[in-house]
TrEMBL record:
The chain crosses the membrane at residues 6-35, 47-66, 72-90, 110-128, 148-174, 186-204, 216-234, 246-264. InterPro entries: TM_pro_TauE-like, TSUP/Inactive_protease-like. It comes from Chryseobacterium muglaense. It is found in: Cell membrane; Membrane. Pfam families: TauE. Belongs to the 4-toluene sulfonate uptake permease (TSUP) (TC 2.A.102) family. Keywords: Cell membrane, Membrane, Transmembrane, Transmembrane helix. GO terms for cellular component: plasma membrane. This is Probable membrane transporter protein. It is a multi-pass membrane protein. PANTHER family: MEMBRANE TRANSPORTER PROTEIN MJ0441-RELATED, MEMBRANE TRANSPORTER PROTEIN YJNA-RELATED. Its main location: membrane.
């Protein structure tokens, strides 16, 4: 199964580079089901893999002026606060065994995976549905109300990132496009910076709670970086928006599979 895990790690990077999100939603299932890693540890590893690979992917967007630094701060600061609080004060207090119903025991790992599955299904909906609003806009239109909405969503993204290790690109990009009227290319570049900012800080704020296999983690991160370089190059030739529904259907199937596997199978 590990060979499929390494192949999937490339796809994580390709997705991040091509559509600015979606890759992080693959990471935890890949770590849990293909590498057999504990779900809690997988959320920690996911933060590092997604954070470093997103940082590398954002470099070309920075060079081309496709990153809005002001928005990174508006969105990123509330996210980081939420991540820190979630990983240091919420996750450690979730019991290993939450409740029992007959022969079924809701463990902490199953609980995290079910939340993650729900997040995947929500992400798939946003990717599959057609956006009827125009994607192009004025990057200077940072109206106060919209900025507050973006900051609020940043807090929500931070909470989810801290809880399940997902970067939240599927939530960040719609917020940047719809609230801040940001062009799609700028939204993707800005999203990558926010994801890397959130994930790396989230990882190092809670890394003391787990024992890290750095050889494995760095190897997987390197493979994901190869993927994001490929995805970034492909984004110059392929419209990532057209591929979003395909990613969405795949994520939907994975989300349903996780629910069935953890509760029924």
């Amino acid at each position: 199964m590990e060979i499929f895990g390494y192949i999937a790690s490339v796809l994580i990077g390709v997705s991040l580079g091509l559509i600015g999100g979606g890759g992080s939603i693959f990471t935890v299932p890949v770590l849990v089901y293909l590498f057999g890693i504990d779900a809690f540890l997988a959320t920690e590893y996911s933060l590092f893999i997604v954070g470093i690979s997103s940082a590398v992917g954002s470099v070309s967007y920075f060079k081309n002026g496709l990153v809005n630094v002001k928005t990174v701060l508006i969105f990123g600061i509330p996210s980081v606060v939420s991540i820190f609080l979630t990983r240091n004060f919420l996750l450690p207090f979730i019991p290993d065994s939450i409740f029992r119903m007959g022969n079924f025991v809701m463990t902490k790992n199953i609980f995290l995976l079910l939340i993650f599955a729900g997040l995947m299904i929500a992400a798939s909906y946003k990717m599959i549905r057609k956006n009827k609003k125009g994607l192009e806009g004025n990057t200077k239109s940072l109206q106060k109300n919209n900025a507050f909405l973006a900051a609020g969503e940043g807090s929500v993204v931070g909470f989810l990132t801290g809880l399940v290790g997902a970067g939240g690109g599927f939530m960040i990009i719609p917020a940047l496009v719809n609230f801040l009227k940001m062009p799609m290319k700028v939204a993707i570049g800005t999203s990558l910076v926010i994801i890397s900012f959130n994930s790396i800080i989230g990882f190092f704020s809670s890394v003391n709670h787990v024992k890290v296999d750095w050889t494995f983690l760095l190897s997987l991160t390197f493979i994901a970086i190869i993927g994001i370089v490929i995805g970034t190059q492909l984004s110059k030739k392929i419209n990532g928006e057209k591929l979003k529904p395909l990613f969405g259907w795949f994520i939907l199937i994975m989300g349903v599979y996780i629910i069935l596997k953890e509760i029924i199978l």
